[in-house]
Amino acid sequence: MKLGRKLVLSGLAVALAAGAAARLTDKxxxxxxxxxxxxxxxxxxxxxxxxxxxxxxxLVVSDSGPEEALTRIFAEIEANRLSNALQLTEGLLRQHxxxxxxxxxxxxxxxxxxxxxxxxxxxxxAPADKVADLRAEAITRLAGYxxxxxxxxxxxxxxxxxxxxxxxxxxxTKRSRLYLYENDQKNGGxxxxxxDYYVTQGKLGAEKLVEGDKKTPVGVYHVTANVPxxxxxxxxGSGAFPLNYPNEWxxxxxxxxxxxxxxxxxxxxxxxPPRASDGCVVLTNQDLDVVAKNLQVGLxxxxxxxxxxWLSLDDWAKERSxxxxxxxxxxxxxxxxxxxxxxxxYSTRFKAGDQDFAEFSAQKKQVNAGKxxxxxxxxxxxxxxxxxxxxxxxxxxxxDYRSNNLNNQMxxxxxxxxxxxxxxxxxEGSA
Length: 431
Fold this sequence. Notes:
This protein has helices at 10-25, 38-41, 67-78, 82-95, 100-111, 128-146, 248-252, 285-292, 313-335, 339-343, 357-368; strands at 153-155, 158-160, 167-172, 177-184, 190-198, 201-202, 219-222, 227-228, 239-242, 261-263, 275-277, 281-282, 301-305, 310-312, 351-352, 355-356, 374-385, 392-403, 407-419, 422-430. The protein has 431 residues and is an alpha+beta fold. It folds into 3 domains: 10-146, no CATH class; 153-310, L,D-transpeptidase catalytic domain-like, CATH 2.40.440; 312-430, Nuclear Transport Factor 2, Chain: A, CATH 3.10.450.50.
């Protein structure tokens, strides 16, 4: 049975177009938004061309997520090919039977057989709050699918990964998107884009400050454990990966709270709305299972940003070179035993444990007075820029310290802050 051509889902198309416009521009949606604008706003540039007639479409949908199928579905709705849209929606539901957004779209399409509908989620008994959540997910997924990172740009934060860090994760809370990058050692450790995924964040957004504020933190973190499904409540889905929030920089800024994880969705839920967690970053179980294969406990960085900054490869290489030079100058000045020159690499606001800069300086002068020679070797260096207005980088490395009266090996972590145009160490300690 064909759906009538005149029964255009104008409410569905216009509502999604208006929401997508607001999300892409951070401005209130313009009014009115015409159906013809949908192809410019809500459709991904990679969507396949639709036929000029209602004809049978393949029911296969992508294994990488529902975005491609959703894009095609809304393209068919916008073009008033509603039979095609229904076929694609049913195909999506065969792959993800508990996908609530697809069920809602199917309900609208079926309702359109009997009358024109003017809104998204037009069924009379559809809860308004649930419909709003699903609409937000549709808008977010379509925008994220369209806005792929530029092929010749990389996230500013991934300045250097140590050789055994195989992958890195960058989360964009503004777009509810997680990007997976590989450490391409064949190209000098250049980050290589692998895939991106829709995610859920805190109910009240990002910039976590205190316990229970329902926000997702922003910063540079690392995976600290792998908690399997068998040890978790159903809420966490197919697994969980705790992060080291709060890190030392968070503590310096007075940020608190705990229990920030990457985890999955309940068994009866395919996906959650863009803002629905208590602060964790949540993926569908399907996506988490794929991402989990690339996570290394104690190694994989997870960088969460309000809005990812992208650099050209030339600018990325320049920033990396500048920071690596600052780190090597610090190493060489420590070896020189010229304590004043060495201490110039530290901020006067430096603090590590109970030691402030004055106490740290006094200790170093006393220790270096007894040294005849110092050799310092740095291996497995990683450098990650912290998102946010403060220019901070997180530096981690294996330190091999040798002198005439002491040999010591440790894994060290430092936080470097740019002060008056110079990179200075504001914290250091064991990683």
